[in-house]
């Protein structure tokens, strides 16, 4: 539309029942756009919600073991690790040493290597076992195929709930822009460059 005075730009916006929104305040002259600001805010909120839904949330679960763990307890804890990996979560496995056990870190290392060898089909070692004070820590991560299937499974279960949430978030009527969000070009100069929608 070109460079027009501020009063003319405001008049054009009022004539077509739209808002005059400043999109580039640092430009000389400032650039404004004629748009329905309420609709714009609603659409940008929908896009942000969709982007958040498509993000993959990384969850780190923790499993604590002792070097002298009973075989049955080890199998139970391994079952939890397998369940976490199948769900697409990372697992931080911690071996806790107490007292004289600290002088035998190879027991914990051997236990972590055994766990690693038993879950190779579901995940891999992201951080190798390392001693951290009284604890020995190893981080396991699921393979991409396992994580992708877990994400697909959760997406298919959560789809009906997400659709209902979107419908309840529909705009309640003519949203009006906040005072600071519809900046007029007159704040920085007497002319504004406008572009129709």
Q: How would you concisely characterize the structure shown here?
A:
Monomer. The protein has 197 residues and is of the alpha/beta class. The protein has helices at 6-15, 37-54, 71-86, 105-118, 144-168, and strands spanning 2-5, 19-24, 31-35, 60-65, 90-96, 123-132, 135-142, 191-195.
Topology diagram in text:
Blueprint: E1 2-5, H1 6-15, E2 19-24, E3 31-35, H2 37-54, E4 60-65, H3 71-86, E5 90-96, H4 105-118, E6 123-132, E7 135-142, H5 144-168, E8 191-195
Parallel strand pairs: 3-8, 4-5
Antiparallel strand pairs: 1-8, 2-3, 5-7, 6-7
Family: Belongs to the IF-3 family.
GO molecular function: ribosome binding; translation initiation factor activity
Subunit structure: Monomer.
What does this protein look like?
The chain has 197 residues and is α/β, with parallel strands linked by helices. The chain has 2 domains: 6-54, Roll (Ubiquitin-like (UB roll)), CATH 3.10.20; 60-150, Translation initiation factor 3 (IF-3), C-terminal domain (Translation Initiation Factor IF3, 2-Layer Sandwich). Helix content is 42%, strand content 26%. The strands form 2 sheets. It has a 4-stranded mixed β-sheet with strand order 1-8-3-2. Strands 4-5-7-6 form a 4-stranded mixed β-sheet. Residues 168-192 have low confidence and may be disordered.
């Amino acid at each position: 539309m070109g460079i027009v005075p501020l009063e003319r730009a405001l008049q054009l916006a009022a004539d077509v029942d739209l808002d005059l929104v400043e999109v580039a305040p640092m430009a000389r002259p400032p650039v404004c756009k004629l748009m329905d600001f309420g609709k714009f805010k609603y659409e940008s909120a929908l896009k942000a919600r969709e982007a958040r839904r498509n993000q993959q949330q990384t969850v780190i679960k923790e499993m604590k073991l002792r070097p002298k763990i009973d075989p049955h307890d080890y199998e139970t804890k391994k079952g939890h690790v397998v369940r976490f990996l199948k769900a697409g979560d990372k697992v931080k496995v911690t071996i806790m040493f107490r007292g004289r056990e600290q002088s035998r870190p190879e027991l914990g290392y051997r236990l972590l290597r055994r766990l690693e060898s038993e879950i190779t089909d579901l995940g891999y070692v992201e951080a190798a076992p390392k001693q951290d004070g009284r604890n020995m820590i190893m981080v396991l991560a699921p393979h991409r195929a396992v994580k992708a299937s877990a994400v697909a499974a959760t997406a298919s279960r959560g789809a009906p709930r997400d659709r209902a949430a979107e419908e309840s978030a529909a705009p309640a009527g003519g949203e009006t822009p906040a005072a600071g969000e519809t900046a007029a070009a007159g704040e920085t100069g007497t002319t504004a460059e406008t572009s129709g929608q």
